[in-house]
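ARCHIVE CARD
CATEGORY: sequence design from structure
SOURCE FIELD: tokenized fold
FIELD CONTENT:
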């Protein structure tokens, strides 16, 4: 029996169970934080009969053509995936990570999948793994979502009717709202994507601010009245969304006609104070 390396995240019994249920050694390796070669060695050591390479078959349901057809929820998931997802380089899998389990369950249901979620016990983060060559290729070829996308992703084509849903998805993954300060911020590692995000928000009637940092970029929307209007646009005809962030916007108790932004927005000083968020 091979000695267990300290970095391995799954017990041998769990690795064997996943393989016997039809999971590929590549996906098991990702979940266990080890190499596919080491997975195969564990299986051999435990006398598990190996399938011929390339014989992996789907054991969970999935709408593999989901990202071919635009809808409000598809736009949301695409934005969420760009913020919190990973397209694998060496296999046909897409992984979305999130601490709030229910949103991944809702996304899974929307994708027509019954794939169980995996929870990282060390971080408490849930992972939704989508195993599909078709979905991976559609994300890359139709929407431009490629492996190692963080600093290189371009803003994808999004039909205007679905723009608020796409931006809400990205906001739920990489956005922040602070009601007491009356501002919303988006963060990202791609300068091109963030500048395009800024432009799209402005095209829908909202003033923004943009800042560049050593490793990331930020887009801000601020002002009490502006934030109210922005939230109405962001959540109009909402489908999928993070309840926690939506509820922050609901702290506003005054009607729109009584709300005002400050006459002179001292953005520069305000933004300096907000760098920690």
């Amino acid at each position: 029996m091979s000695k267990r390396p300290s970095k391995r995240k799954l017990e041998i019994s769990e690795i064997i169970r996943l393989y016997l249920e039809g999971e590929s050694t590549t996906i098991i390796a990702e979940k266990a934080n080890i190499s596919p070669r080491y997975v195969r060695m564990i299986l051999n050591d435990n006398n598990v009969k190996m399938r011929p390479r390339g014989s992996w078959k789907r054991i969970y349901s999935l709408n593999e053509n989901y990202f071919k057809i635009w809808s409000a929820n598809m736009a949301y998931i695409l934005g969420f995936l760009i913020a919190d997802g990973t397209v694998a380089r060496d296999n046909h899998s897409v992984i979305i990570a999130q601490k709030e389990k229910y949103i991944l369950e809702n996304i899974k249901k929307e994708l027509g999948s019954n794939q169980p979620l995996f929870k990282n016990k060390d971080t408490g983060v849930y992972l939704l793994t989508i195993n599909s060559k078709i979905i991976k290729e559609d994300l890359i070829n139709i929407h431009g979502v490629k492996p190692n996308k963080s600093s290189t992703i371009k803003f994808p084509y999004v039909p205007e009717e679905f723009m608020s849903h796409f931006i809400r998805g990205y906001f739920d993954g990489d956005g922040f709202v602070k009601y007491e300060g009356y501002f919303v911020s988006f963060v990202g590692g791609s300068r091109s994507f963030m500048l395009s995000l800024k432009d799209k928000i402005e095209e829908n009637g909202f003033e923004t601010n943009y800042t560049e940092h050593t490793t990331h970029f930020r887009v801000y929307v601020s002002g009490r009245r502006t934030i109210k209007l922005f939230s109405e646009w962001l959540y109009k005809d909402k489908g999928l969304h993070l309840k926690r962030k939506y509820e922050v916007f609901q702290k506003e108790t005054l009607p729109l006609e009584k709300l005002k932004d400050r006459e002179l927005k001292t953005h520069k000083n305000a933004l300096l104070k907000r760098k920690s968020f």
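CARD ANNOTATION: The chain has a mean pLDDT of 88. The chain has three domains: 1-55, 66-141, 160-276.
SHELF: design records, drawer C
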